[in-house]
């Protein structure tokens, strides 16, 4: 006979077909519930990982992995020397100067707030993908002294301008001669629209305007950029690499990495992932309650069998093992099916979603509403492992109470009326 005996008997109870229809039905419902819960968890978390990765990519498309700035927003002294000292920093792919100014853009009758960013057209592609995001125009059009500007797509739409049109840039200025501290004369300058970019993120497309660094310095009356953008070969190690790069520079500069600048976005995603995981884990919990109900009914149905096994010498611990085995078979089989189904769905979202959209004639991510028109998916092995472990753990806990009830069965009481 197969050994150990409790496992053999537990497997026989799990695979036997002589149970009542209701017990068998609940058993299959429990198994399906575990499988569906595990599959849903893997699929949903994979999709949320995909959206997080997509958001990170779009946030960093026009933003660097880290930013060096001078205290108080002043111009960086000897910024060319600082760039030279950065060469050779571990993991550094590129560095580029920039100058940001909060401005108002006007094209009667429209007006919109924006960030005017002065860039070096030759160095900017080393730290951002702005060149790939251009829909009209070229970075090379931003020549020093040309007073040309490249707008985000939404910003250009709000101002109702296109390539060749002019916009007025306004920024706060210093006090006018002979006036009090409250008298300010705004800086005004006309810029010609030389291009339009679309990064696919409202934070860039609706507020960012690019000009040549020399034009921005002249507009602000500054003798240099206010910051230096850095890009590294590993975005996840950017915080450590940025600190190492800062150590090569003269004192007086500060560094901020992308995790600090976009902390609110990723904190919200982490909270959403956590809550979604807990909510979907309730599906597995419902299936676990079904396993408890199934085992309680099996224990009640098998009281005579338990009593006979006890009289033949099977210990209470052996009886406990019998029903633990039966519950684990249901849970483990459901978890295995759920992991396989979840991976199949998560790894083929790019095929399944277009098929569903084509079949039912709907757009899950309507391009007229959302920047991201597809549903990305990114499966992390760590997520699959903890989901499977949680399902197996809950299943094991579900078997304890019914198995202990079976182990406490007294042979004399069970066989009294047999």
Quick overview:
This protein is α+β, with helices and mostly antiparallel strands and 418 residues long. The chain has helices at residues 5-15, 21-59, 79-86, 130-133, 153-159, 202-205, 213-220, 238-246, 258-261, 263-301, 303-311, 316-346, 349-360, 381-407, 411-414; strands at residues 66-70, 92-107, 110-119, 134-136, 148-152, 166-171, 187-197, 208-212, 227-232, 253-257.
State the main characteristics:
single chain, alpha+beta, six-stranded mixed beta barrel, 10 strands
Write a structural description:
With 418 residues, the protein is of the alpha+beta class. The chain is built from 15 helices and ten strands. It has helices at 5-15, 21-59, 79-86, 130-133, 153-159, 202-205, 213-220, 238-246, 258-261, 263-301, 303-311, 316-346, 349-360, 381-407, 411-414; strands at residues 66-70, 92-107, 110-119, 134-136, 148-152, 166-171, 187-197, 208-212, 227-232, 253-257. A six-stranded mixed beta barrel has the order 2-3-8-5-7-6. The two termini are 27 Å apart.
Write the layout of secondary structure elements.
Elements: H1 5-15, H2 21-59, E1 66-70, H3 79-86, E2 92-107, E3 110-119, H4 130-133, E4 134-136, E5 148-152, H5 153-159, E6 166-171, E7 187-197, H6 202-205, E8 208-212, H7 213-220, E9 227-232, H8 238-246, E10 253-257, H9 258-261, H10 263-301, H11 303-311, H12 316-346, H13 349-360, H14 381-407, H15 411-414
Parallel strand pairs: 3-8, 5-7
Antiparallel strand pairs: 1-9, 1-10, 2-3, 2-6, 2-9, 4-7, 5-8, 6-7
Helix pairs in contact: 1-12, 2-10, 2-12, 2-14, 10-12, 10-14, 12-14
């Amino acid at each position: 006979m197969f050994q150990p005996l409790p496992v053999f008997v537990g497997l026989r109870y799990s695979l036997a077909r002589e149970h009542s229809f209701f017990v068998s039905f609940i058993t299959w419902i429990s198994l399906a519930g575990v499988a569906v819960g595990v599959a849903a968890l893997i699929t949903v978390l994979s999709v949320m990982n995909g959206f997080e990765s997509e958001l990170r990519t779009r946030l960093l498309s026009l933003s660097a992995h880290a930013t060096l700035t001078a205290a108080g927003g002043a111009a960086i002294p000897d910024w060319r020397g600082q760039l030279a000292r950065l060469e050779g920093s571990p993991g550094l792919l590129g560095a580029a100067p920039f100058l940001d100014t909060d401005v108002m853009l006007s094209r009667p009758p429209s007006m919109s707030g924006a960030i005017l960013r002065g860039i070096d057209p030759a160095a900017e592609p080393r730290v951002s993908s702005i060149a790939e995001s251009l829909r009209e125009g070229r970075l090379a059009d931003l020549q020093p002294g040309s007073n040309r500007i490249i707008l985000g797509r939404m910003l250009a739409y709000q101002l109702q301008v296109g390539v060749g049109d002019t916009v007025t840039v306004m920024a706060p200025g210093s006090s006018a001669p002979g006036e009090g501290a409250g008298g300010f004369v705004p800086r005004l300058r006309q810029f010609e629209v030389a291009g339009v970019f679309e990064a696919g993120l409202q934070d860039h497309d609706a507020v960012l305007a690019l000009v040549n660094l020399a034009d921005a310095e002249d507009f602000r009356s500054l003798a240099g950029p206010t910051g230096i953008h850095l890009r590294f070969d590993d975005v996840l190690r950017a915080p450590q690499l940025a600190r190492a790069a800062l150590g090569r520079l003269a004192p007086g500069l500060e560094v901020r990495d992308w995790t600090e600048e976009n902390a609110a976005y990723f904190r919200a995603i982490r909270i959403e992932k956590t809550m979604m995981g807990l909510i979907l884990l309730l599906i597995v919990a419902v299936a676990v309650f079904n396993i408890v109900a199934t085992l309680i009914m099996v224990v009640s149905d098998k009281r005579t069998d338990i009593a006979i096994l006890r009289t033949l010498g099977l210990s209470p611990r052996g009886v406990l093992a019998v029903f633990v085995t039966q519950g684990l078979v249901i849970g483990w089989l459901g978890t295995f099916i759920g992991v396989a189904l979840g991976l199949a769905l998560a790894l083929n979202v790019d095929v399944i979603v277009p098929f569903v959209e084509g079949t039912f004639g709907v757009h899950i991510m309507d391009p007229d509403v959302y920047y991201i028109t597809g549903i990305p998916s990114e499966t992390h092995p760590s997520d699959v492992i903890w989901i499977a472990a949680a399902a197996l753990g809950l299943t094991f806990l579900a078997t304890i109470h019914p198995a202990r009830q079976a182990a406490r069965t007294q042979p004399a009481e069970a066989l009294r009326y047999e």
